[in-house]
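Supplementary Note 3. Input sequence used for the single-chain structure prediction.
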Amino acid sequence: MSSRCPRRPAFTLIELLVVIAIIAILIALLVPAVQKVREAAARTQCVNNLKQIGLALHNYESANKKLPMGSKGPVSSFNWRVALFPYLEMDSVYQQLIPNDCYNSTVLTNTFPVWKCPSSSLPTNPTDTLSSWHTNPGHHVPSYIGVMGAYPDPLGRPEMQFTSNYGGYYTGNGMLVPNQETKLAYCTDGTSNTIVVAEQSGAVGTSDLRNRYYSPWGGLTFTTPVSAGAPSDSWGLGLTSAAYAINSQTTASGSNSVYDADTIMNSMHPGGMNVAFLDGTVRFIQASASFTNFQLLCVRDDGMPVVLND
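The predicted structure, written as discrete structure tokens, is reproduced below.
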């Protein structure tokens, strides 16, 4: 006598659609959670990068009794970022650089993890016309920029700024200053109240306006001190000042070209950006924070206490 296994009833179309709908709902719930976890990890790595850069600044100051010059002329010179290489376990890279020839130093086309915010989706080594003007395109564009102060000066000191004929104002009221070396003693507002490095890792609208051109590791097109007035041809690399809002999605004079003096500080972290203070701490500054207070935090000696809510 033969026996047959009973046939299992197949899924009906309605049941199949219900299962698919449940899976879709679960995926819709899971994806944002995964994205939040990824962003949290990326933001933590960005904080760690800035802490390493802040520690390198302190180690440089301990060894030299002053901070590195923010940027100097001629433009082929290296700015403050390169001065920190030996203090960031990048001495082998430092030894391969061509002295005073930033744009022909091919080693700078490498990617340096400590200089890259993992949340940024902008190209690490862009080769657009604004990144390849000279002979060696594709230099790594860092996610972090030196803060030379704020414009206008909170105390109205005209000697602390001058106009760039290419756009913006070079300032001397911060800690990483063009053609000058500062000391911790200059920071009378306190090292915990003065921003020295900030993120510049996001887009402005649809444009990549991170400070670069000859090379983001390069210098300035002038050699006079900040207090000496505006030279005939002034633009530079590696520095910016607080003249426009954090994460601004529009540009104005001084921020709409990659070689301007006041390129916008920003990030792709939701709601703000990370900054390093002179004491080595790293904080997240909300884009909604008072712009006046943000400017005061970028100045070393305005004498005005600031409280920002994280």
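The mean pLDDT is 88. Residues 14-297 form one domain.
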